[in-house]
Amino acid sequence: MATSSKKSVMNWSEEKDIVLMRQMVGTGIFEFRAGSKERGKTWLEIAESLNTDERFGGALTARGARDRFTLISRRQKSKNLAQIKSTGGGGEERTEFDILIEDLIELNEEAEKKAQDQTDNQKEKEKQDKEKGLDMRQKAMETMGQTRKRTSEDKDDVFERMKRRRSRSETVTWLDKKAEQDTEWRKLLVEESKREIGIWQGKTRGKSWKFRENSWKCK
């Protein structure tokens, strides 16, 4: 008959808590954002390192280490609050446990505040980006309206220029045609003048020959 293996149960003590917190300080675990892969990996490294210590018996898990710190930090906060109420801020001499836990609590709170600030900044940036996008869209719509108006005005202006250009073109065409007509008219005048000159010269030559003929007869 097979025997069932039981999981080892971690029995915590102040000594083990101090060893755990020393390891946490050494790894700088709170430099990483809560819930990040980096912090999860660091908790795993802490557990693996402590499991090489015979006092932990290889029974510590990453979750077990994290849960233990959460528990002792809550206890320390309650203890500090009770001391403040009873003594007005004074208290017993601080032990290594007190120093480590309070330093780690402070580091954790600073990390949480930093993470919250980053989240708030990201939300604010997203809000500003959204508002900027809406503003750009509004301006784009206004620009489109202005562009359509300007395009319409440009079309009207182009139409007017085309009309003026067509009018000038028609005038030039008329002038060219008139110039051609004038040229043809001048050619006709020249030809008519030549023809008349030719007729006149012919008549003149006829009279001259007749005059000479009469002169010869008289001789």
Account of the protein in words:
This protein is mainly alpha-helical. It has helices spanning 14-27, 37-50, 62-87, 96-218. Residues 112-162 are annotated as: Disordered. Residues 112-140, 150-161 have a biased composition (Basic and acidic residues). This is Myb-like domain-containing protein.
Which short descriptors sum up this protein?
single chain, 219 residues, mainly alpha, 0% strand, rod-shaped, disordered N terminus
Choose one word for the global shape. rod-shaped
Average of per-residue pLDDT values? 81
Helical amount: over 70%
Helix-strand sequence: HHHH
Report Rg. Answer: 57 Å
Q: In terms of structural class, how would the helical and strand content be classed? A: mainly alpha
The beta-strand count equals 0
Biggest beta-sheet profile = none
Distance between the termini: 183 Å
Number of helices: 4
Protein name: Myb-like domain-containing protein
Organism: Exaiptasia diaphana (Tropical sea anemone)
Region (Disordered): 112-162
Biased composition (Basic and acidic residues): 112-140, 150-161
Per-chain topology:
Elements: H1 14-27, H2 37-50, H3 62-87, H4 96-218
In short:
The protein is 81% helix and 0% strand.
